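Below is how a single chain appears once it has passed through the pipeline. First comes the sequence as given, then the structure the pipeline wrote out for it. We keep one example in the README because the format questions we get most often are answered faster by looking than by reading.
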Amino acid sequence: MRTQVRKWGNSRGMIFPAAALEQCGLTLGTEVEIILKDGGVFLKPAAPVYDLAALLADFPDDYQLSEEEMEWESMKPRGDEI
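Resulting structure:
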């Protein structure tokens, strides 16, 4: 597949054929990582960036520790851990 670099405002961009994006698992809105290697440009889906506050917001307020978790929570240190 071939495409051209085109002017897009003050930037440059390319139109990727839908089939090429689909093959790579990229959809509209997917963040990508740009990798420059051996004179080429490679794109891959970017790894998610986790936000602790957002993750904790999804955590249920009424969460109860299991018996196993309670056991771990009450264990005494066995080495140099705090």
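The longest strand covers residues 32-37.

See the next section for the split statistics.
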